[in-house]
């Protein structure tokens, strides 16, 4: 049985004042039936992990370097993030792949680094609008999965997030059939690589303009084990109903 996961990505948003949103989430969901993860900016991980220490809320990071330490000015390593209190890290987000020219190979090295530091790697992948319109979606997904996911991946240390680039922050979402097709394809690809039983354990998240108003419909889709949420994770007011919708889908 895969435990559902509601994950929030605050991106480059949030200051100390934003921590009250986490306190509200904890108070609203003291004993959730699902896993809840917030990935704040790195500046807030220590405080966020501290205030959520005695609660089910988990704190994650948004990126890590592929090395454990060294001369990499401005970067943060996976062991540092774990030491700060993170239990997971987003990797391969399209804003990193596009804005920082991250290749599949680099993302794979980062996922390996996360695994070595005992962080859950949340591997993001997804097609551009041009790729979808050219009917290349499944080919792109297959390439990203094969090249960004190292052999150290297990259902315990890795979560896959399908995030079509054209749906991130746009208010657009794929149809139910489109999400179902990609998630079934991901499950089958994982089965080919890791074996059917192992593949059944991997959690597959959908990400891209998940809101309180569309969450229940998305969570009803086969092989959708939760969501990676950007904008709607910034406030407890918006994220809490998404958590509730996912609990109702259990
Ligand atoms: C994201 O950044 O991973 C994301 C899905 O953003 P949004 O929910 O705002 O589309």
Please describe what this structure looks like.
This protein has a single domain (5-248), classed as TIM Barrel (Alpha-Beta Barrel), CATH 3.20.20.70. It contains 11 helices and 8 strands. It has helices at 19-28, 45-51, 78-84, 94-99, 104-116, 129-133, 137-148, 176-194, 196-199, 215-219, 236-248, and strands at 5-9, 35-39, 58-61, 88-91, 120-125, 158-162, 203-207, 226-229. Helix 1 runs parallel beside helix 11 (236-248) and helix 7 packs parallel to helix 8. The protein has an 8-stranded parallel barrel, surrounded by 6 helices. The protein is an alpha/beta fold and 250 residues long. Helices cover 40% and strands 15% of the residues. The model has no long low-confidence stretch (mean pLDDT 98). Bound molecules: phosphoenolpyruvate (PEP).
- Kindly report how far apart the N and C termini lie: 10 Å
Percent of residues in helical segments?
A: 40-55%
Structural class: alpha/beta
Sequence of secondary-structure elements: EHEHEHEHHEHHEHHEHEH
The coarse silhouette is globular
Quick tags:
250 residues, alpha/beta, 8 strands
Short description:
With about 250 residues, this protein is α/β, with parallel strands linked by helices. Helices cover about 40% and strands about 15% of the residues. The chain starts with a strand and ends with a helix.
Topology, element by element:
Blueprint: E1 5-9, H1 19-28, E2 35-39, H2 45-51, E3 58-61, H3 78-84, E4 88-91, H4 94-99, H5 104-116, E5 120-125, H6 129-133, H7 137-148, E6 158-162, H8 176-194, H9 196-199, E7 203-207, H10 215-219, E8 226-229, H11 236-248
Parallel strand pairs: 1-2, 1-8, 2-3, 3-4, 4-5, 5-6, 6-7, 7-8
Helix pairs in contact: 1-11, 7-8
The structure holds phosphoenolpyruvate.
Phosphoenolpyruvate (PEP) is lined by residues 9, 163, 168-169, 207-210, 228-232.
